[in-house]
Structure formats: C-alpha cells, structure tokens
C-alpha cells in the first residue's frame, strides 16, 4: 500500500499541469513568489514557461499577484 504525503495530496488536486512533479513545483514556486524570494521571471523559468503564461495561470486560479504595494496599485488606477 502506498501512502502519500499531504503535499502530494494537495498537488494531485491542482487543476493544472499534467504530472504531480509539475504540480509540486508550481506549489513551491507559488510560495517563493508570494514570499518575494524569487521574481516572476525566475518563477516562469523554473516552470519552463514565459512570464505571461505564468501570469495567465495565476489569473485562471484566481491568484492575484503583484509586487506593487496597495498604495502603488491605487495610484496606478487614478493615473
């Protein structure tokens, strides 16, 4: 009988990517992005995607991503 770790179970439930390794890698990259450890460009490189494709995936999953502060975003909206 094979048991899976919680990370593997979570990864298997991701609606994107085809294999578990890609899904686990995406979770790792997502964590690194939100912690601001890596750039969007580096995250896309790790996932073998271009930056625009990674942004589209994040958007499809409803994950808002920006390195701008909330104040910067508001300033851009009125500009």
From TrEMBL:
Origin: domain of life: Bacteria
Identification of the protein by name: Uncharacterized protein
Organism of this sequence: Floridaenema aerugineum BLCC-F46
């Amino acid at each position: 009988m094979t048991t899976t770790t919680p990370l593997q179970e979570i990864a298997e439930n991701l609606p994107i990517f085809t294999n578990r390794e890609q899904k686990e890698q995406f979770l790792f990259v997502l964590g690194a992005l939100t912690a601001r450890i890596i750039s969007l460009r580096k995250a896309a490189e790790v996932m073998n995607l271009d930056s625009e494709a990674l942004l589209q995936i994040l958007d499809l999953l409803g994950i808002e991503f920006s390195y701008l502060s909330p104040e910067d975003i508001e300033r851009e909206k009125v500009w």
